[in-house]
């Protein structure tokens, strides 16, 4: 997709693929053939630049044909460079500018719980770790804890990279688990590329109903593509044709053994 | 009786802050629709949300001093099928959270209602940081956004009820200081429509928000000097009733715009764009000209910037080549 689009972000989406596979393939209560289903759980992508992995998860669970993935970032495509809700049924929000998804998730979770009487409807918000530099996130963190939004689950892609380098050099996040706990959140710290651990973490968070939960998912940026893994320079660029072939071969080989 | 029947020289009118009409309108909107909710950033009473909060405590949400969170939580609430009204001072919302409004309300096409109180110069003593003058320009360039600046508290009440029933995101501009209540419950209010409050043939005075009353009073002063001014009121800045302005301009051949905001990009900018495209007409734009406000008593500051009826009349008369119209 990204090679074809010739622009976009590579490392983040690859690292998050396992998380979205579990959510869209297992945890989310949703009906891809009926995007506005009123009983659905809600998934909000806050770090909108990782749109390719969301589009892939949606296509592979039946929201739209997988062939359409190759239209990413093209003029007239429903797959805008950053997700645009009004362009594609099934998208729950428009995102790209960082920091706003958790607030949207908090508002949504609060209405379904308090006005609709449906605390069983869960709102998931996917965030990047670089995104946690944004003050809006911490405003939302305070708000969700104040109202004890137990049906809100945040997921942080803790891959330690952002555009200008290592997250701990650019703007240190430090004791991230401690920060969220202090803000009043239930925290689960996992290997974000371990399928079983992801499933277990989501289940644990769903059982916590008196406070919001956050999953700190330690992922490997560029996961599965040896030349990309852990290299922050792959945050915002795309592979050449030759590099893409190597990446697909490596991911295919791993997929067959996993 | 409507505003058009009432002469400014009649006995003094009662005054009331425009924001108080919002408070009543929100309460009524809440009564009409149980999916109307309200969020505030630590300014409940000054933005008049306490009426709604007290009547519908389970539909009111206190966000604290966090304007970015204010509108983004509202975006999520709108996605969940509610009509959220958010309130703060205009200096902070949309002053501080413009991008969040654009991305999560306007581009995302959710009916978030951004209510900016204490807009304009009449915040007075608080000074330049709190005198929001750029909001009209900021909000009217945003696709999908409706922008409304009522002229008095009675109109603000109607505007609030109308916006609650409208599916679009919107910005409602309110003022702090008490201003004359010159419209009446009988005055019609239609989103997107301007109104002729005084018919005239020599000059078109186009106002929005608090300036419309000042223009009506200025028109009376001008009349005593033989100038027959037509006064138009545009509560809705976007979508703009261009036809009304252009047809009036075609008859009078001279247009004056007035606003308690920056004329660059603001209402004056809108009037200039509209006229130059549809009917080039001589234009005098009155408002704030590329500078910040300053502290002082509300009317004192408005006077200092030349936006009271007396000063407006003098400036208009001068532009028309008539002297001593300010007597």
TrEMBL record, chain A:
InterPro entries: THDP-binding (IPR029061), Transketolase_N (IPR005474). One of its GO terms (molecular function) is magnesium ion binding. CDD domains: TPP_TK. Residues 2-237 form the Transketolase N-terminal domain. It comes from the Bacteria. Keywords: Thiamine pyrophosphate. Its cofactor is thiamine diphosphate. PANTHER family: TRANSKETOLASE N-TERMINAL SECTION-RELATED (PTHR47514). Belongs to the transketolase family. This is Transketolase. The lineage of its organism: Bacteria, Bacillati, Actinomycetota, Actinomycetes, Micrococcales.
UniProtKB/TrEMBL annotation, chain B:
Its EC number is 2.2.1.1. The keyword Transferase applies. GO terms for molecular function: magnesium ion binding; transketolase activity. The keyword Methyltransferase does not apply. Its cofactor is thiamine diphosphate. It is an enzyme of class 2 (transferase). InterPro entries: PDH/Transketolase, THDP-binding, Transketo_C/PFOR_II, Transketolase-like_Pyr-bd, Transketolase_BS, Transketolase_C. Residues 16-181 form the Transketolase-like pyrimidine-binding domain. Keywords: Thiamine pyrophosphate, Transferase. Belongs to the transketolase family. This is Transketolase, C-terminal section. It comes from Mycetocola reblochoni REB411.
């Amino acid at each position: 997709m990204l090679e074809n689009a010739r622009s976009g972000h590579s490392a983040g989406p690859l690292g998050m693929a396992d998380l979205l596979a579990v959510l869209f393939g297992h945890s989310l209560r949703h009906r891809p053939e009926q995007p506005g289903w009123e009983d659905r759980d809600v998934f909000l992508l806050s770090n909108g630049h990782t749109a390719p992995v969301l589009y892939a998860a949606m296509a592979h669970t039946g929201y739209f044909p997988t062939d359409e993935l190759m239209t990413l970032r093209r003029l007239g495509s429903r797959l805008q460079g950053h997700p645009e809700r009004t362009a594609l049924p099934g998208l729950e929000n428009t995102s790209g500018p960082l920091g706003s998804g958790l607030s949207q998730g908090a508002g949504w979770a609060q209405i379904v719980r308090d006005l609709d009487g449906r605390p069983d409807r869960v709102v998931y918000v996917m965030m990047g770790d670089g995104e946690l530099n944004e003050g809006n996130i911490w405003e939302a963190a305070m708000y969700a804890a104040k109202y004890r939004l137990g049906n809100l689950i945040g997921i942080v892609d803790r891959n330690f990279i952002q555009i200008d380098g290592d997250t701990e050099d650019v703007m240190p996040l430090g004791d991230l688990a401690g920060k969220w706990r202090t803000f009043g959140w239930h925290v689960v710290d996992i290997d974000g590329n371990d399928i079983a651990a992801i499933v277990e973490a989501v289940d644990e968070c769903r059982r916590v109903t008196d406070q919001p939960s956050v999953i700190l998912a330690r992922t490997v940026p560029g996961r599965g593509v040896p030349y990309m893994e852990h290299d922050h320079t792959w945050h915002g660029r795309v592979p050449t044709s030759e590099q893409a072939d190597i990446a697909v071969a490596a991911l295919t080989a791993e997929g067959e053994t996993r | 009786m409507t505003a058009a029947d009432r002469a400014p020289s009649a006995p003094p009118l009662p005054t009331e802050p425009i924001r108080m009409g919002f408070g009543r309108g929100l309460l009524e909107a809440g009564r009409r629709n149980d999916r109307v909710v309200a969020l505030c950033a630590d300014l409940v009473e000054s933005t008049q949300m306490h009426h709604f909060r007290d009547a519908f405590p389970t539909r009111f949400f206190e966000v604290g001093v966090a304007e970015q969170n204010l509108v983004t939580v509202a975006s999520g609430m709108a996605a969940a099928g509610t009509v959220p009204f958010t309130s703060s001072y205009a200096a902070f919302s949309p002053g501080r959270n413009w991008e969040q409004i654009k991305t999560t309300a306007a581009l995302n096409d959710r009916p978030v209602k951004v209510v900016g109180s204490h807009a304009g110069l009449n915040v007075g003593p608080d000074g330049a940081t709190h005198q929001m003058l750029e909001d009209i320009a900021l909000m009217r360039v945003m696709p999908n956004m409706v922008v409304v600046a009522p002229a008095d508290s009675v109109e603000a009440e109607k505007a609030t009820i109308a916006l609650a029933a409208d599916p679009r995101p919107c910005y409602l501009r309110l003022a702090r200081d008490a201003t004359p209540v010159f419209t009446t419950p009988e005055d019609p209010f239609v989103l997107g429509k301007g109104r002729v409050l005084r018919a005239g043939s020599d000059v078109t005075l186009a106002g929005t928000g608090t300036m419309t009353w000042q223009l009506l009073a200025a028109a009376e002063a001008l009349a005593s000097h033989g100038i027959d001014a037509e006064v138009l009121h545009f509560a809705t800045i976007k979508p703009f009733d261009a036809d009304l302005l252009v047809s009036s301009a075609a008859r009078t051949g001279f247009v004056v715009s007035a606003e308690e905001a920056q004329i660059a990009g603001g209402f004056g900018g809108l009037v200039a764009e509209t006229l130059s495209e549809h009917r080039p007409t001589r234009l005098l734009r009155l408002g704030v000209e590329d500078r910040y406000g300053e502290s002082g008593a509300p009317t004192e500051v408005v006077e200092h910037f030349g936006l009271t009826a007396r000063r407006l009349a003098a400036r208009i008369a001068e532009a028309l080549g008539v002297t001593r119209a300010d007597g």
